[in-house]
Amino acid sequence: MELSEKINRLKKERNAVILAHNYQVPEVQDIADFVGDSLGLSIQASRTDADVIVFCGVYFMAETAKILSPEKTVLIPDANAGCPMADMITAEDLRKLKAEHPGAKVLCYVNTTAEVKAECDVCCTSGNAEKVVREAFNNDDEIIFAPDQYLAHYVSAKVGREFIRWQGFCPTHLKILPDDIERERRLHPGVEILVHPECRAEVTDMADRVFSTEGMIRYVGENNGREFIIGTETGILHRLKRENPDKDFYPLCERAVCPNMKRTTLEKVLWSLEDMKHEVTVPGEIMTKARKSLDIMLKY
Ligand code: CIZ
Ligand code: SF4
At what angle do helices 149-159 and 129-136 cross, to 10 degrees? Predict the structure, then answer.
């Protein structure tokens, strides 16, 4: 109680807005002004007149917030909260791959560093990837898709075209196994299983539906079902329950916990506001180029 009071007081003094990703721990979600996915949060923050954004999430997300709000100070409560998937491809790796495929266009999942975004043509989220591929590229374009091989697999099947795929993956979503689907189907017969497209191909193939985190939130809110099995990072169950108190949610896999997302605590949020730490900056040229790839996506 005392902690959240201190945070709220300081938040007003600093004219700050607190963003929490859907995978954050419950108490951090509860103190936030907005809870959502990385792009949605960055857009919401850019529309406020706050001077400071505290991004409770992982590093690339705070960079995205900075790119969309260059005039605001962006803070991340734990500077070591990284995303292993985003770190699986560097700007140098991508430049090499582009050199091996001259003429190919590059589509990057938002789970990439700002430097990698600056090297790509268009960005996408797990929610809009299919639409972006259909609308932002020509039919005969060769497309490099980075970094998530499983999102690439899923979108490739949807749009019926092949990509040059970077072999990245999310270690947390890979913990979800076909066995988990078989077990949960036995335990909760008839209950729909929703999974994230970062899951293994066998898992997305076996699930009833595949959604981004915001896609899941929307689907559950609009659907008449009373129970759902959720196959993504387990932090999202808190938001689902909070917004749908009359419905029940079961994690498809209790082990799907992202250690980086869990680094943020209320204490660190408070220290972040007290000391104005850790500031996330993006160098000017990278900012301009990365912004361009994000802007093209936003048109769709
Ligand atoms: O970009 C995000 O927030 C991620 C990683 C997941 C999602 O599906 O919203
Ligand atoms: Fe990265 Fe996976 Fe953690 Fe998301 S859940 S931040 S993709 S490691």
Answer: 60
Give the ligand with the smallest distance to the CA of 218: 1
**Does ligand 1 come within 6 angstroms of the Cβ of 213?**
yes
Do the first three CATH levels of 85-169+287-298 and 173-251 match, i.e. the same topology?
Answer: yes
Q: Which run of H or of E encompasses 18? A: strand 16-21
pLDDT of residue 300: 87
H-helix or E-strand containing 106? strand 105-109
Q: Is the CB of 111 under 6 A from ligand 1?
A: yes
Q: How do residues 148-206 score in pLDDT, each as one tens digit?
A: 999 999 999 999 999 999 999 999 999 999 999 999 999 999 999 999 999 999 999 99
State which fold the 173-251 domain adopts: Rossmann fold (3.40.50)
Element (H, E) at 203: helix 201-206
Taking the centre of ligand 2 as the mean of its atom positions, its distance from the CA of residue 277, in whole angstroms, is: 22
Domains of the chain, by residue range, sit at 2-82+261-282, 85-169+287-298, 173-251
What predicted TM-score, i.e. pTM, was given to this entire model?
0.97
Cα distances (angstroms) measured from residue 288 to each of 83, 150, 280, 282: 23, 29, 16, 10
What's the mean pLDDT in 249-253?
98
Contact at 8 Å (CB) between 118 and 91?
yes
Would you call 140 exposed, middle or buried from its count of C-beta atoms within 10 A (0-12, 13-18, 19+)?
Answer: exposed
Q: How far is the CA of 275 from the centre of ligand 2 (A)?
A: 27
